[in-house]
Amino acid sequence: MKKIFIPITLVAVALLSSNCSNDFIEVAPTENIAEADLLTIYNNNEGAKSFVTAIYSNALSFSASSFSWNGLTSMTSDDADKGSDPGDSGTDKDKCDALTLDATSLSVQEVFETNYQGISKANIALNYLPRLDKADAAVVARLTGEAKFLRALMYFNLVRCYGGVPIVDHVPVPSSAEDTDMTLIRKSKDEVYKFIETDLLAAIAALPEKSGYAISDLGRATKGAAHALLAKVYLYQGNWQGVKDQSTAVTGYNLVTDYASIWREVGEDSVESIFEIRGYGGNPSQGIEGYMVSQGARGTSGWGWGFNTPSASLANSYEAGDVRRDATIIFAGETMWDGRVVSPLVANPRYNEKAYVSNTKETFNGDWETTKNIRVLRYAEVLLMQAEAANESGTGDVTGPLNRVRNRAGLANTTATGQVALRVAIRAERRHELAFEHDRWFDIVRTGQAKSVMAADGKTFVEGKHELFPIPQKFITQANGKATQNPGY
Which of 62, 154, 180, 310 is within CB 3.0–4.6 Å of 289 for a Cys-Cys bond? Predict the structure, then answer.
C-alpha cells in the first residue's frame, strides 16, 4: 500500500520521502500513514482544514518569522543594528549587520529552507484537498485559495531574498528525474513572479472577504489579503497599473486612529489589519517562537536577548511630532505605556517596540512561544502603494492617500510638490510607517537607493552583489551543477 509521510496532527507535513535526492527542500518525516487511511480519516471539513493549518503553522517557527528573518530583512538595513552584546554574534547576525553574509551563513540557509518547508506543506494540501470528496465543496475551494495565497507569500519572500529559485509546484515523485530537476533548477526571477501572480489570481477568485469569515476563523487569508499582496508583487516589478488595480480592490479596511495600538493585543485583527501571522498554530497554545524574547531589552531589568535594535539613523529621521517614533522605539530609561520602567542600564539605547508584549497589560509570561501576532499586510501600506503608483505613473491621486497616512501619525499634509519631491516623501513615509515590518531592506534595494543609503550608514553595498543574498551552499552542493550561485558569492 502506498505510504506518505504525515503526522497525525498535520502540524508538520513532509514533502518528499526520505530517499529523494534533494533533502534540502524537505520537511523531516515524523510518521507513516497509509494514503487510503489518510483519505478516510481526513475526508471531512475539519480534516481538510488540517492540511491548511499545517501551512499557517510553518510561519510560527523561529527561523520563519523571528531570528533569521529579522537578520535578513531588518538588521541588514539602515533601520536596525545587530544589538545584543558586542560578543554575542547571534551565530551570524553580526554578518547581517555588516553585509558580510556568505553562502554558509545560517540566516541565509534557514530563510531559504523554512520557506520551502512551508511550500511543501502547501503542495501537500493542494494535492489532497481535491480528493476529499466528503468535505463540503465550498470549504475545499476556499482552503485551496488559502493554500495558494500562502504559497505565493512564501515565494515572494524567496524571490526578494534570492532572486530566481526553483518553482516546486507539486509534490515531487522521488523516482522522477523531471521532478528532481524541478526541485534543483532555478527559474528566472520573472518566472517566479509570474508563478506568484498566477497563485494570487486563483486565490482572489476563491477567497471570501474578511467579513465573510466567522470570528473563529479570523486570521485566515482573505480576498483583500490576496489583492494587497498582488499589489505589492506588482510594486516590486514596477507595474504601476497593476498596483493601482489591485490596491483599489482592497475594500472594507481603514486606518485605526491610534498608531501605537496596532501592535498591542487589542490591535489584533483590527479594521486596518489585512493579514497577520497568528500567535497560535495547530496547537492552540503554540506561539511564534522567540519573536518577543529575541528582541526584548537585554541587561539590567531586561526581558530578552536584545537583537534587532533601532538604529540612530532611524531614530533621528522622524519629523517632529511624528507619533510613530515613540510607538516604534523603546528608549532606555523610558516609562512604557504599561508602566514598565526600562532601566537606563540596559545593554542598548533602543529596542523594537513593535515586538513588545506586556507582562502586566497583556499575556506575556516569559514563554518562548508568545501569542503576539505579527502584522504582515496593513491598509496603511495599501495607501502608500497607491501613492507611489500614482506618482511613478504620472496619473492618479498621490497626496490623498499619502496625507491620510501622515495625518494619522500626527503630521500635517505633505508640502512636497512634483514627482521627484513626492518620491522622496513617499519613501520617507514607507520608512517611518513600516519600520521593523520587514520592508526597509527590500525597499532600498528595489528603489535603487541601497548603495547611497548604506554608505550613509557606514556600510559598503556592492552593486551587482548585495541586491540578493547568496543561495545556501548546502543547496548548491546538492544541486551538483544544476543550480548556480548568485553573483559575487
Answer: 62
Question: How many other CB atoms are found less than 10 A from the CB of residue 108?
Answer: 28
- The residues with which 374 forms a beta bridge, in sequence order, are 277
Q: Which positions ≥6 away from 228 have C-beta within 8 Å?
A: 246, 247, 250, 274, 275, 377, 381, 382
Contact status, residue 348 vs residue 332, Cβ threshold 8 Å: yes
Partners of residue 33 on adjacent β-strands: 4
CA 187 to chain centre: 22
Task: Note whether 439 and 430 are within 8 A (CB).
Answer: yes
Strand partners, 330: 351
Q: Identify the pLDDT of residue 366.
A: 74
CA 379/CA 401 separation, integer angstroms:
11
C-alpha cell at 197: 501572480
pLDDT, tens digit, 9 for 90 and up, residues 335-390 = 999 999 999 999 999 999 999 999 899 887 777 887 789 999 999 999 999 999 99
Cell numbers standing for residue 98: 555588516
C-alpha cell at 194: 509570474
In this model, does residue 224 exceed pLDDT 50?
Answer: yes
Contact 449, 427 (CB under 8 A): yes
Q: Rounded to an integer, what distance in angstroms lies between the CA atom of residue 384 and that of residue 86? A: 37
From start to end of 90-211, where are the E strands?
Answer: none
Q: Which residue has the cell 486596518?
A: 272
* Nearby residues of 342 by Cβ (< 8 Å), 6 or more positions away: 297, 301, 330, 331, 332, 333, 334, 335, 336, 351
Output the CA torsion 78→81→82→83 (10° steps). -170
pTM > 0.85: yes
| Burial of 126 (C-beta count, 10 Å sphere; 0-12/13-18/19+) | buried
Structural domains in the chain plus CATH codes: 3-285+376-479 (1.25.40.390), 288-375 (no CATH)
Q: Furthest-apart CA pair in the chain: how many Å?
A: 70
DSSP 8-state assignment for residue 66: I
Contact between residue 367 and residue 290 where contact means Cβ atoms under 8 Å apart: no
Q: Which of 111, 384, 87, 438 is nearest to 244 (CA)?
A: 384
Distances (CA, A) of 271 to 210, 219, 274, 280, 447: 10, 12, 8, 21, 30
Residue 341 carries which DSSP code?
A: B
